[in-house]
Amino acid sequence: MDKIFLDTNIIIDLLDSKRKNHTKAKNLFIKLIENDFEVFISEDMITTIYYILKGNEKILEFFEKIIEEWNIVGFGKDTILESINYCKKHKTDLEDVLQCICAKNNGCELFITNDKKFINCGIKIVNYDFFNL
Questions:
Q1: Could you tell me which residue ranges the PIN domain spans (predicted)?
Q2: Which residue ranges in the chain fall short of pLDDT 70?
């Protein structure tokens, strides 16, 4: 089973039907389920998603479901320090680096994001096009 890490923007695409990539996100999730991918997100995404989507009952129910199905992982001291050092060296965004290093440190092979210029932390960065959506 392949381990994949989802960026926050992918989950927001799924949950917000007004976003232009909503249909692609729905199709991606179908593909992930059909192909038995092991899904990872970081625990800090929960509050970010809730805040951005103005938290409601539907969002809370989504969180209840993914807690049973997905791996929700923390950063931990080592990931945070590695990310800080990466940012100092490469002058880049800490939030993206934390997510990517977290994915790498949890053995994920793919990081799925909509960001056009995502950092290179040592794992394959892909978007919807990778899955022919």
A1: 4-120
A2: 1
